[in-house]
Design a protein that fits this description.
By secondary structure, the protein is of the alpha/beta class. Helix content is 44%, strand content 13%. Helix 9 packs antiparallel against helix 10.
Length: 341
């Protein structure tokens, strides 16, 4: 088995440095990964991130025609961009057919997947490959995931990914979801794993064992919160394990990772309390700071508040969401204390 390895450092990694990759960073990362024969290099977002709006975001957050034209030539890798329909209208992709990009990945949540087929058709009309990434897959029931598969099947992409956006899945969860999708979609499947519970590599391997053929990864695991499966570790286990094959030159992938560690990452990737709390409670990492601060103000346990937030499956990261829940919990506690008195 020879999985397709997709590096998304310049896209997802931008959550760590506000997409402030210098031209030298972009050239070095793309050129070194291409020389290492990584299959696909995702060079950023077209139109911005859907989960982290930033007025100061660097070039890979938008992938303007000028940014794409300045990318180094590649001889092995395909270049890709990601589009989030909620922030990037269909017409904003029109020039991509004349760019160095050969693939567009469309990222949607379970609650807005219905808009994806239109984007798949638009990308195909440009003569490009198209992928779909289902974000927040941990928020789907089997019945909901089956319905999503039906929607995707109406305009099949070249690959369909599950994205463990909150780092909440276990290998058993991955096997269940991949198995369900493999029965319903006659196309390659992929997995984008986050490492909040320390399971990114285990979940990637569970995906491979269940029928996944595409792996997302980023150099040094660079991404929001606990980060992704690390590209260098993915290349390492694909190289070391005889049951798998890979095009990737591990030494050169590690060279790219060393560059990112020394020249790009603003701080080493860590998995501490905040990252683990977001994963175990199954909510967006960007909620965690709000949960800690607002819970403290109300005298509440942030772990319990986080658990309630995850159970509510909120669609946006808003202070008001946490504030409202904390008020409800605090009021309930006062009522209980009053009865006991």
């Amino acid at each position: 088995m020879k999985p397709i390895l997709l590096d998304c450092t310049l896209r997802d990694g931008g959550n760590q440095n506000d997409w402030q990759f210098t031209p030298t960073d972009v050239h070095t990362i793309v050129s070194t990964l291409d020389a290492a024969r990584v299959d696909v290099i995702e060079v950023g977002y077209r139109g911005g991130s859907g989960s982290r709006a930033s007025a100061t975001a660097g070039p890979s957050a938008h992938c303007t025609p000028e940014y794409l034209a300045a990318l180094p030539d590649v001889s092995h890798a395909e270049l890709a961009v990601m589009v989030v329909p909620t922030v990037c209208p269909v017409q904003a992709m029109a020039d991509l057919g004349d760019s160095p990009v050969s693939m567009v990945r469309i990222a949607a949540y379970p609650w807005n997947i219905d808009g994806v087929p239109e984007y798949v058709r638009a990308v195909r009309a440009l003569g490009l490959k198209v992928g779909v990434n289902l974000m927040a897959v941990s928020y789907t029931t089997p019945e909901q995931l089956a319905g999503i598969a039906d929607t995707v099947a109406s305009e099949l992409p070249d690959v369909f990914y599950i994205a463990d956006s909150f780092g909440a899945l276990t290998p058993d969860d991955v096997r269940q979801r991949v198995g369900l999708l493999a029965e319903r979609l006659p196309i390659p499947l992929g997995i984008h794993a986050h490492n909040n519970l320390g399971l990114a590599a285990a979940n990637a391997l569970a995906g491979l064992d269940s029928g996944v053929g595409w792996l997302d990864a980023s150099l040094c695991a660079m991404a929001r919160g606990a980060g992704n499966l690390a590209t260098e570790q993915a290349a390492a286990f694909l190289t070391a394990w005889p049951r798998y094959e890979t095009h990737a030159d591990l030494a050169l992938v590690c060279e790219a990772a060393e560059y990112v560690a020394e020249q790009v990452l603003p701080r080493p990737m860590t998995v501490r309390r905040a990252e683990i709390a977001a994963g175990i409670n199954d909510h967006h990492f960007y909620f965690q700071d709000r949960i800690e601060k607002i819970s403290a103000r109300h005298g509440l346990d942030p772990w319990e508040v986080g658990r309630r937030i995850g159970a509510a499956q909120p669609r946006k990261v808003l202070d008001e969401t946490v504030e409202r829940l904390c008020r409800e919990l605090a009021d309930g506690r006062q009522l209980t204390e009053g009865r006991e008195a």
